Amino acid sequence: MKKFWALFFWFWPLVALYVCLIAPGRNWWFPSKPLSTLGHQIDGLFYLILIIVTVTFVGTEFALGYALWKSAVSEPGKKAWFSHGSHRLEIVWTIVPAFVLVFISFYQLDVLADIRVLSRFPESVKEAPVAEVMARQFEWRIRYPKPGTELMTSPQPGDLYFVNEVHVPATVPTMINLRTQDVQHAFFVPRLRVKQDAVPGLIIQVWFEIEEAGDYELLCAELCGWGHYKMKARIVAESPEGVSAYLTRLEREQNEDGVQEAETASVK
Amino acid sequence: MTDLKRLGLAIMLHTAWLKRAGIAGILAIVATGCSDNSSSFSISDRTSSLIPEAQSGVADTPGVVDLLEEKFGNPQQLKAWTKLPVQWGGAAASVEVFAADAEGAKVRFTVADGQEFPAKATFVNVVTGSGAGKTLGLSSWDAATGEAVLTGLDGVVLASGDTCSIDGGAVIRSGRVLYMRHCSHCHGTAGDGNGPTAQYLYPRPRDYRHGVFKFTSTNDMSKVSREDLLRVLRYGIPGTYMPSFLLMKDEELTAIVEYVRLLSMRGEFERKLVNELVSDYSADAVESRLKDEQRADIVAELGEFLSEDLPGVVDGIGGELEESWVAADTEEARIIPSVPRVPDSEESRRRGRELYLSKTLNCADCHGIDGAGNGPQTMVYEKNPVTNVPYNEPGLHDVWDNLNQPRNLHTGIFRGGRRPIDLFCRIHAGIKGSRMPSFKNTPHEDIWHIVNYVLSIPFEPEPGATGLAAGPIAAPLVGATPAAGE
Fold first, then answer.
1. Residue of A138, A251, A255 with shortest CB distance to B243
2. Which CATH number is correct for B91-168, 1.10.287, 2.40.10, 2.60.40, 1.10.260?
3. Closest partner CB to B478 (pick from A141, A157, A230)
4. 3-state secondary structure of B331
5. DSSP secondary structure of A80-93
6. In this complex, do B420 and A259 lie within 8 Å of one another by their Cβ atoms?
7. CA distance to A148, B168, B196, per residue, from B115 (Å)
8. Contact B167/B120 with Cβ under 8 angstroms?
9. Distances (CA, A) of B8 to B5, B17, B22, B150, B177
């Protein structure tokens, strides 16, 4: 029975090792492959941490199994080695993880800076947010600048408004201004690996470069109230021409005076 | 035994008892389910103000509550009052019978023009023929050919040429499920605007039972159109808690619209029915009548009214509902400006401002001189028009008895939509149920001037900056159609 427990604790690290080895290839941890340029870097960090924890987990579990095995096969009556209070051991298991953590924190600085630090944003987006995404309980309200003008922080005459759907260009760097009207929300696009809190009083620039045109799910990832689950929107990534055609359409719709539409309807 | 020991024993006994009670509780839940999951349509306060006989009938004659159940059912078992203009769903079809015995009938359905067989169907309702009103089971349903075997005949004799409704009520049933999931926590099971989350919201969620919806593209006396309801579902109402349901599928949204319309009609039916009874048979009225009359006589009189007059009243209300809700979706009900939008210009805005302040339109009386929503009417103590009791707080009140704040036009939030046509409709038809009146007699060109002015208010450098006489430009021009020559 004693040997069983040793084997039991050796068995699980093998399972974990197998799972961690095949997981990246099968994309088990993510809803899809990363579809933004930053997404690749973020996944890279994730897999680095996955390697570190796998090695740690397998190592400690094997050590545990080894200790169990050794005591299982030892002579009856043999005294155990009393390790409690060993300074050397304590120093080792403090310094090694500390070193690992410091390594991770330095290693990820580059990626973090690429995501968050405005001066590292691609030149083309720095001054040109395509839209303001205003989170509110419980929806996303979008404001685009009037085509041909720049987005200002306060609403301008001719700005275009929509709700729960953002059209952005694909395959080029894009930036949005993230705000909230009430409480904290978080702008989370799982397939782009973009997640950014919206904080009351702040305008937060979020940039990404979507690699494939298509629809992306935008969720709120900060429990914001009873209707949190309702805060679902769609990001439509399309060609820059597609976006400007969309904005032209939106502008026409927003200026409808009910006469033109009635005429076209009666012609049909 | 020391006190400490006694305490320990007490705790042990207690935990053992707790454990047993917990296990028994879990077994009870497993056996019976957590609670009674059935829900009901609540009745209105006015209905419950009636004497019990008026609510639940005298002898065999149905009362208000029975009639509601008869015509609309309950959330578990909805009933289709087919007179009402609701798209219940399902396909109307005539039947051709090949073979029939006591067990079942082999049949083929032919669908009415312009309809399609539902892909999945498990039952049919017989509409005409000797089995009218019966529900039959449908097995081996072939949606391509319409061939099927009917089961559960139970004495019903079907003849070729009888008409049936296949999978009847499919739309309204799916609307009910979606409504219960997405809407009922604010708007309430019966659409009374009193769901569990409603008390935390300002403004309060809409109570559909008046049949009144604020933001419509229809004339001031018309109901809301299906398109208007869809628009609100898709885009939400900014400035309120009504969120956008843009990502739901079209068929889901239309199913919800139909269900909301059904709830509205149910509420209106209840209101109108109670209107017939409330003056004579409310608990208060009966109490005051008891001074000169016997209760038994009053009840007998009520019984007579319920059995002889009420069926006609019910038909009349059904007719009114049908007519008004059908009319809302017609072209005649829709507001179409007679002139296109007047191009936005400094002059048009000044004219709009002039009209805004004019004695005839008097917008400033509620919205304030500068459009901040603080006109003198917000200081007035009003009386409730139904009960004649003054409200506790000053200001205007809507038909739902909620404080009705005139909009502050500086916020740039337009609840009913920010398109020029939306604002045109708000002015032309007013905001139904609220104290914003209809200005349908105002020339359309003038309405456009006001629209131009209102759209420019959020961008005024300071409140009231738009002058009446020519002067420096107050705010940048709005819209895609600047006036010629600017």
1. A138
2. 2.40.10
3. A157
4. helix
5. PP--TT-HHHHHHH
6. no
7. 47, 13, 39
8. yes
9. 5, 14, 21, 69, 52
- CB neighbours of residue A15 within 10 Å: 9
- Take residue B176 and report the two structure tokens written for it: 């009910």
Phi-psi region at B73: left, alpha or beta (left = phi > 0; alpha = psi -120 to 50)? left
Domain with CATH 2.40.10 in chain B: 91-168
Sheet holding A174-180: strands in order across? Answer: A160-163, A139-144, A131-136, A174-180, A204-208
> How many other C-beta atoms lie within 10 A of the C-beta of residue B50?
25
pLDDT at residue A262, as a whole number: 66
Neighbouring-strand partners of residue A175: A207
For the question of whether the overall pTM of this predicted structure is more than 0.80, the answer is yes
B171 and B258 Cβ atoms separated by less than 8 Å: yes
C-alpha distances out from residue B354 to A206, B35, B443, Å? 45, 62, 14
Inter-chain CB proximity B246 and A252 less than 8 Å = no
Per-residue pLDDT, averaged over B74-89, amounts to 90
DSSP label of B308: I
* Residues from chain B contacting residue A137 (CB–CB below 8 Å): 241, 243
Q: Residue A149: list chain B partners with CB under 8 A.
A: none
Residues of chain A contacting B416 with CB distance shorter than 8 Å? none
Element (H, E) at B85: none
**Residue of B336, B339, B409, B451 best to disrupt the A interface, most CBs of A under 10 A:** B336
- Give pLDDT tens digits for B197-223: 999 888 899 999 999 999 999 999 999
Whether residue B266 is predicted with pLDDT greater than 90 in this model: the reply is yes
- Picking from B183, B199, B234, B421 by the largest number of A CB atoms within 10 A of its own CB, the best residue to mutate is B421
- Cis geometry, peptide bond prior to residue A200 (ω within 30 degrees of 0): no
Show pLDDT as tens, one digit a residue, over chain A (268 residues).
788 988 999 999 999 999 888 888 888 888 888 999 999 999 999 999 999 999 999 999 999 999 889 888 888 888 877 888 889 989 999 999 999 999 999 999 999 999 999 999 999 998 899 999 999 999 999 999 999 999 999 999 999 999 999 999 999 999 999 999 999 999 999 999 999 999 999 999 999 999 999 999 999 999 999 889 999 999 999 999 999 999 999 999 999 998 876 666 655 4
CATH homologous superfamily, domain B346-459: Cytochrome c-like domain (1.10.760.10)
Residue ranges matching CATH 1.10.760.10 in chain B: 346-459
